[in-house]
Amino acid sequence: MEPAAAHMGTDVSVPEPVELAKMLSDYAKAARGTAIKNHTKGDTFGESLAGARADVYEKAAELVRQLPLADAATEMMNQAKASHIRTPPLINFDSAGVQYAMARAWQFCAWKIDPALAEVAPKWD
Q: Is 77 left (phi over 0), alpha (psi -120 to 50) or beta?
């Protein structure tokens, strides 16, 4: 899942872009480690989830390096909104779960920049 304290109050200070990009890259590295561990255990679904989060964190770090933070957060929320699945399906649940995890990861990254952004990828009930 997302790293702890995903959606904090608005009194949280935003790291500098260089620090934020490093933090997101570190999250990607950790998620890749989780994917490898899951692969070793034979958990292909867990591997897919962790790999998808790692991809998002790497792309988010790149956005932070390339864009002003407000623009990066907007793009991240757009990605979250575009990939969010409102209700888990009965068929193709695994692929929907990966897409859901990606949406939540994009939203998490945007909240690291601006915790006051509205939720666009809510949790499944």
A: alpha
User: 14 and 20 in contact (C-beta within 8 Å)?
Assistant: yes
- In the chain, domain spans: 17-113
> In this predicted model, what pLDDT tens digit does every residue of 59-118 receive, in sequence order?
999 999 999 999 999 999 999 999 998 887 788 888 999 999 999 999 999 999 999 999
What is the reported pTM?
A: 0.85
CB 38, CB 50: distance < 8 Å: yes
Q: What is the DSSP string of the chain?
A: -PPSS-S--TTPPPPPHHHHHHHHHHHHHHHHHHHHHHHHHT-HHHHHHHHHHHHHHHHHHHHHHHS-HHHHHHHHHHHHHHH--SS--SSSHHHHHHHHHHHHHHHHHHHHH-TTSPPSSPPP-
Q: What is the pLDDT of residues 33-57, one digit of tens each?
A: 999 999 999 999 999 999 999 999 9
